[in-house]
Write a structure and sequence with these properties.
The chain contains seven helices and seven strands; from the N terminus they run βαβαβαβαβαβααβ. The chain is of the alpha/beta class. It binds beta-D-glucopyranose. Beta-D-glucopyranose binds next to loops. GO terms for molecular function: oxidoreductase activity, acting on the CH-OH group of donors, NAD or NADP as acceptor.
Length: about 270
Amino acid sequence: MPLKVLDGRCAIVTGASSGIGQAVAVALAQAGARVAVNHSSGGESAARAQKVVDDIARDGGTAMAVQADVSREDEVAQLYAQTEAAFGPLDILVNNAGIEQPSPIEQMTLDQWRRVIDVNLTGQFLCAREAARHFLAREAPEGERRARGTMIFMSSVHEVIPWAFQANYAASKGGINLLMRSLAQELAPRRIRVNSIAPGAIRTPINHEAWDTPEALADLLKLIPYGRIGEPDDIGRAAVWLASDDSDYVTGTTLFVDGGMTLYPEFRGAG
Ligand code: BGC
């Protein structure tokens, strides 16, 4: 059997019990990585994460579920400790966990603002810092076109497209852009690659209201020049490439996977 591109690598995917995180975990495992499927809490999210793990195992892959709230320093440290104890030194972080709490600005509570920034931005900082510590604790591979470790931040088209009623979310994603690029600049000399994926509208639970009726989907498609909604595995495939040595010369980049949503489609024939 030919070697898979991520054979022998160890990965953490945060927020992997559903949606994009789930698809990324499955895709990394199919590419040969051993994957920690992080979920935020017990109950339903734990059950969903376990199902992702079971599906991966049924497919011949290796994964385990690990609970941690990425906005909490102690829980993030635990996430890494448990992952490395089971799967060995970390090679790949996919900083994916994210939430939305929409509100008109005049009604947005400080709590809604803080929670979104805590999970989407501070959570990515905490997980990236921990990944950097773990990557730096080991030797850089010599003379190979291979990084010491790779990080992928899950951003959004809303790192560039302003989003009314989701100022907290858009601010978190705008923050991810410069967090990612600053870390890429800082860590490149130490052979750590740092990139983002900016998904457009992907068919997941977070945005079901935008696609689960024919009318909503028709409205959404007006924003997508390529004429279809994205599927979670569109992001999974992009993540495999960015995590693998195939993208060894790529760092500090945001890969938009959005069917052209950032191309200002409303300007076609207008303006
Ligand atoms: C959001 C989705 C939204 C998409 C495009 C994503 O970042 O999480 O709710 O559909 O951007 O607007």
